[in-house]
Write a structure and sequence with these properties.
CATH superfamily of the largest domain: HUPs
Number of helices: 17
Number of strands: 11
Strand content: 5-15%
CATH class of the largest domain: Alpha Beta
Bound molecules: tryptophan
CATH topology of the largest domain: Rossmann fold
Shape: elongated
Largest sheet: 7 strands, mixed
CATH architecture of the largest domain: 3-Layer(aba) Sandwich
Number of domains: 3
Structural class: alpha/beta
Helix content: 40-55%
Order of helices and strands: HEHEHEHEHHEHHHEHEEHEEHEHHHHH
Amino acid sequence: MEDVQRIDPWSSEQSTDYQRLIQKFGLGSIDLSLIPNPSMLHRRGIIFAHRDFDLILNSIKNNENFGVLTGLMPSGKMHLGHSMVIQQVKWFQQHGGDINVAVADLEALATRSKSLEGGRKTAIEDYIINYAALGLRPETTNVYFQSKRSEVQRLAFTLGRKTNLSELESIYGFQGDTNLAHVQSPLIQAGDITHPQLEEFGGLRPVVVPVGVDQDPHLRLTRGLVSKTNWFNLKDQKNGGLIIALSIQPENEKIFGISNNGKLVLEDRKIIFEKIKNCILKLGYADILSNLKHGTITIPGATSSDKYKLKIELLTLERSLGGMGLLPPCSTYHRFVVGMTGDKMSSSKPETTIFMDDSIEIMSRKVKRAHSGGQSTVEEHRRLGGDCSKDVAFQYLQFFFESDDTELEKIRKNYESGRILAGEMKQLCIDKATIWLNDISEKRDEWSGRLDEFLANDSI
Ligand code: TRP
């Protein structure tokens, strides 16, 4: 039977069957032992999957340049759920990444009918101020608006040539009555994701997009689009070695030795092959098998670990010949925290989440009413213990408020053994959340009036 599970990035309904998502969409699992100075979200398994994250880890290890791209939809208010991505962005920033933040004002207009002016105000006054308060540094952060960055729009348009309505229908479930601004928004997002690789925004280098798993369809789309633009396909061979195949497209036909009437021009094909061979020689391989007619070059001795270096050489060559020369984006995915009521968290239902600027009173009320994993009587609770996997207060400590792993484990054990009661767990959460929210609020005051420091030149 056909598996119709789909992720809808515009719905607040999300699948939380993470193992299934990993399998269905071919995500990689996170190996904590490979992550330097893992953050709280890494250590606790909250960041649970990735695509090509190893490229970023290598860049960090070798002190090489990498970019980070994240985006915000300026439609609702910023809440705790949104802060998770910023914690990750901060970690990348501390490890050398430069940060680009897309304000998805076009997407908010297309999908939430939010005006561009309104979106700008919400983005700066509610999101960027909290990003600053959470500790993002302005020196290596660039906040821009989709509506104002023509390079992003141009990329969206250019990449749009490599897809069609049927593909967008199957990824997103778009239908005949879907408005066309909405149809364009994933292409704009593909523009967001790829543009940090343009020369003027940092150039060819890996770019990572940390997101909630609801955004993976955009990454799948973008990776597919990017690979369709690539002039040279690089693949592992079944019996070892790597193979490079020319990907003939209207923009490279001439250079690849295809004449107007579709015939092979051997002289031109030889020239492009020489250039490819130079790329391979740079990696130290002399043993090369070329098939001019098929447009393939095999390097029997090359290993998978040479693949990335060779890929970069080939993309550089592609750029020098007039191609886009894009690497597919890397990504990491985090789990969603449960809403306060035990259902999904959503800005449109204030009782399901804590907003960054909730007062202590409002936050306390929400925590007190939150879904608990306690037993129905004290006697039973002492005997059977509480269930942390159902307890919202515990999970909020785990995702946000208790940064000390040992302390968190102590709380977990004491709850599971019945020593801590459900009401006491809520009080622990309220106490920690009070410190957290007060701190953020103080930092917001420090940053107000200085947010221009985060804005890119084209967004002032
Ligand atoms: N679509 C994202 C959201 O709904 C916002 C966004 C736009 C984004 N461009 C992006 C996220 C690029 C990550 C990367 O929140």
